[in-house]
Amino acid sequence: MESQTTDAIMTSPNALAQLGAMAIHYGLSLAGAIVLLVGGWILSGFVSRWAYSGLSRIHGIDETLARFFEKVLHYGLLILVFVMVLGQFGVQTASIVAALGAAGLAIGLALQGTLQNIAAGIMLLVLRPFRVGEYIETSSVKGKIVDVGLFATELRTGDGLYLMAPNSTLWNTPIINHSREPERRQELSVAIGNDTDVSVVKETILAIVASDKRVKTDPPPRVVSDDLTADKTALKIEYWASTGEWTETRYDMIDKLKIGLAQKGIAIK
After folding, report:
1. Average pLDDT for residues 126-151, to the nearest whole number?
2. pTM of the predicted model, to two decimals?
3. DSSP per-residue letters across 216-228
4. Residue 115 resides in a domain
5. What are the residue boundaries of the Mechanosensitive ion channel MscS C-terminal domain, all occurrences included (predicted)?
6. Structure confidence by residue, pLDDT tens digits, 213-226
């Protein structure tokens, strides 16, 4: 019994020394981890804000895209800081990185359609085939752009309905932008009998078209014979108007042509 008591007394200082060494070691690791966490959080915020500020100054970079890259950079740096913190406690970070890579691959495969929409959204925001407020038309959708997001684009149809289109459907199809160009050509058609003097009708139509101040003088409007049958001649009327007034100009021009030709006694077939 006396020898056991002596051995316990002899080993106690060694145990206390080991506990003290472990406390110092893990205390330093904990302090280093806290420093890394705080410093990494501050640094990631600073770097991401700096990147956002730099992207915002680049012409053609959309606000949504700049915010997206800011968040990706911010959380990417935080993940790197987290891995470094685990390394402070002796954790094998190589296996963690491999696990994160495998998890990222699995998530990417599971969200393949979503990632495709994100990639398409990034391309739409970079290349800007359309902007908010413009009217577009594709083989499947048409409407006025309300918002361009990373996953989908919101539109308002001509009859006031809300439409959301996945970005992949807009990126993989030809797009007609009705609003991008400042001026747009209009074409109308009028058919007259073959017994009517074509030159007189052309002069009358040109005078009616030119009287509208919304019609551009350069290039000037023109009237050409477009088709001929046994009993009538089809005349094609071409003129240019500003894109914003194009639709209303068309509606008004049809009324003006009908009234103006009737006043000259010209019958329309």
Report:
1. 89
2. 0.62
3. -SSSPPEEEEEEE
4. no
5. 188-268
6. 999 999 999 999 99
